[in-house]
Design brief:
This protein is of the alpha+beta class. It has two domains: 18-182, no CATH class; 263-356, no CATH class. The protein contains 16 helices and 13 strands. It has helices at residues 3-13, 24-31, 39-47, 54-62, 84-105, 110-124, 132-139, 145-160, 179-182, 192-207, 212-219, 223-232, 271-274, 288-291, 333-339, 344-350, and strands spanning 34-35, 66-71, 73-80, 130-131, 164-166, 175-178, 237-242, 245-250, 263-266, 301-304, 307-316, 320-327, 353-356. A five-stranded mixed β-sheet has the order 9-10-11-12-13, with helices on one face. The chain has a three-stranded antiparallel β-sheet with strand order 1-3-2. Strand 7 and strand 8 (245-250) form a beta hairpin. Helix 11 (212-219) packs across helix 12. The longest helix is centred in the N-terminal third of the chain and has 22 residues, at 84-105.
Length: 357
Amino acid sequence: MTYQEISHHRLVSQKLLEANANSPQEIVTHLGAMQAQDYSMAKWAIGSRCDATEAAIEEAINSAQIIRTHILRPTWHFVSADDIYWMLDVSAPQVKRFTASAGKKYGYDTKKLNQANSKIEKLLAGNNHLTRDEIMQELGIKKTSSADFLSAAIMMNAELDGLVCNGRMKGKQITYALLEERVSKPKSKLTREEGIAKLALRYLESHGPATLLDFSWWSGFPPTTCKNIFNAIELQLNSIEINGQIYWIKTDSSVKNNFRESVHFLPAFDEILISYKTREASILLEHQSRAFTNNGIFKPIILENSKVIGTWKRTIKKDYAKIETDFFNETETHKKAILFEGIRAFENYLGTKIVIE
């Protein structure tokens, strides 16, 4: 198997290659967790994998079919309501080390964070959805640059404790609500080992072929933990070796050669790049600095036949959306016209005219 084949199979496993009838929640369930700090672009990460419009995806989030919260790593992710509790049980303890450290910088130890949780619970009880600024005002924390970091740590801690999650959007503002008022708590729990194994199998089904270090990066668990889990589920996995590197897939995953031409305009922070420790299968090394930075900022990307060939950005106008492109190599006009057909799905998703410049 070659890197080209690896990248193509990832299009299949990530549900990017074939049109499908999955709902937004089913897409998120399949992928396990989808990075979502850029809220607008993160919705397109879902939309690029199904036929749903932006409005339909927004409704799935507002109605708590899809939860937006901090999980896996100290950043925002979309998670299906069906997965939120077991995934929090698995990953929250490791991410809470980050919030504990951040809180201490501003005089908030575990006791004070727990006290903040108690106050937040009372504020949000009865399906009261409030913005972070509204919550901080009630907690007596003034809006300053340093308090901004403190408020983020307080709310992230509350998320990781399973107390809060995203509420309904208030205009363009994100709100918080009590998780248990949005999603019923399950009666049974997984053990830590069962939870990590479930997470690993979900990742390899939706992101494979992938390496052990890819899963370690995506999940936030150290390589030694991941190795033990891979050993425990080895009978459910197949492996492929390329240049001394082992790539894993689930045994029931198809790796037959079903290549076909494809073009995709994908959002910033899309799983097709960000969910892997190294990205040589999808983008040439000399192009990587133009697609993402060393400090973790990922741009919207253009894929041709599963390879990143450029970046793009959108600007929303009153009656249309303007699309600007930056191809890594010189591209002839007739070739661009063919590539631009890949943006039509985005036009349908937005429900507005697109102008390409």
